């Protein structure tokens, strides 16, 4: 049975004393990618553990003009997705339960978590203040749910790295585990925002994973060659407006030989898509990726 809770007290009561707890944090509009996180959470805590999924559209991570009001809210369907995935409790708090106030205009005046310099590159350069909102709500929800382990998708890779760094730096005592990205048959990463794409835009969006795969294939020749290969593929699609495509090390620092990450953000129509893939980089070919971490 899946319990729906709107307050911390209800959520903790649903736990019924079970010691191992895993949390999956979402903004709702759930899809199979989210369900994979829930299944991974169940594997972590076992049949005797407790899996809680949070459904909360966080206002502090949306800047003015972004799609906070338009973001899909589908709680009834979300609860069914959670039920099918074996979630024990859906925690769907209101803004007041999370932030202690419903005055959205003043939420940014409260104490917030500073992501540091890593929050100013890639997504942070395009969306100033975004990661302050993300880390603040994640920190709050970690305190409210008090889990042993928290699962986050690798699709939001910069977010995953920052959350892991925050949990370590602030001694949260929770394991942060990344779960590989779930993809559509054509390779497009599953995302709640994919529903915004028209049929023509949806076809064009497949260029995003194609570009990443091209960069991964070229990574043996170094980060700059990999980046150029990915950008060349994106340039073949007129509907794709590239914000960035960068190659970094796994912690988003300058790329060097060994493990790396290719990350991109692309607009197709009015829909913004982000994605990334791991890669293995060959010897450096000159300028490091840190010189390329700006908005394009």
Count of domain modules:
2
Across the major sheet, the strand order is: 1-4-3-2-5-6
SS content category: alpha/beta
Task: Round the Cα radius of gyration to an integer and report it.
Answer: 19 Å
CATH superfamily of the largest domain: HUPs
Proportion in helices: 25-40%
**Principal-axis shape:** globular
Question: Distance between the terminal alpha carbons, to the nearest Å?
Answer: 48 Å
CATH architecture level-2 label of the largest domain = 3-Layer(aba) Sandwich
Residue fraction in strands: 15-25%
Helix and strand element order: EHEHEHEHHHEHEHHHEEE
According to CATH, what is the class of the largest domain? Alpha Beta
Largest β sheet strand count, sense and barrel closure:
6 strands, parallel
Number of helices: 10
Instruction: Provide mean pLDDT, rounded.
Output: 93
The CATH topology of the largest domain is given as Rossmann fold
Total count of strands:
9
| Low-pLDDT runs | 287-292
Please, could you describe this protein's structure?
By secondary structure, this protein is of the alpha/beta class. The chain has two domains: 177 residues, HUPs (Rossmann fold), CATH 3.40.50; 97 residues, Pantoate--beta-alanine Ligase, Chain: A,domain 2 (2-Layer Sandwich), CATH 3.30.1300. Helix content is 34%, strand content 20%. The protein is built from ten helices and nine strands. Strands 1-4-3-2-5-6 form a six-stranded parallel β-sheet, with helices on both faces. Helix 9 runs antiparallel to helix 10. The longest helix is centred in the middle third of the chain and has 16 residues.
């Amino acid at each position: 049975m899946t319990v729906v809770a709107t307050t911390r007290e209800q959520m903790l009561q649903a736990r019924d004393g079970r010691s191992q707890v895993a949390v999956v944090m979402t903004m709702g509009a759930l899809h199979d990618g989210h369900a994979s996180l829930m299944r991974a959470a169940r594997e972590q805590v076992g049949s005797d553990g407790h899996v809680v999924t949070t459904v909360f559209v966080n206002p502090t991570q949306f800047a003015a003009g972004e799609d906070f009001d338009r973001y899909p809210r589908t709680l009834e369907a979300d609860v069914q997705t959670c039920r099918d995935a074996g979630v024990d409790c859906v925690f769907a708090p209101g803004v007041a339960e999370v932030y202690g106030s419903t005055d959205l205009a003043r939420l940014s005046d409260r104490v917030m978590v500073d992501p540091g310099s890593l929050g100013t590159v890639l997504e942070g350069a395009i969306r100033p203040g975004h990661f302050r909102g993300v880390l603040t709500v994640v920190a709050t929800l970690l305190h409210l749910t008090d889990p042993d382990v928290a699962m986050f998708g690798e699709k939001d890779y910069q977010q995953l790295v920052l959350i892991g760094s925050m949990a370590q730096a602030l001694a949260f005592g929770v394991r942060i585990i990344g779960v590989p990205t779930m993809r559509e048959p054509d390779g497009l990463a599953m995302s709640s925002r994919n529903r915004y794409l028209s049929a023509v835009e949806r076809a064009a969006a497949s260029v995003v994973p194609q570009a990443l795969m091209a960069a991964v294939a070229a990574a043996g020749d170094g980060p700059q060659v990999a980046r150029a290969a990915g950008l060349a593929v994106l340039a073949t699609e007129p509907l794709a407006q590239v914000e960035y495509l960068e190659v970094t090390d796994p912690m988003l620092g300058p790329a060097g030989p060994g493990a790396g990450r290719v990350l991109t953000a692309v607009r197709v129509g009015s829909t913004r898509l982000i994605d990334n893939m791991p890669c293995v980089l060959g010897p450096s070919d000159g300028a490091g990726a840190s010189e390329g971490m700006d908005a394009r």
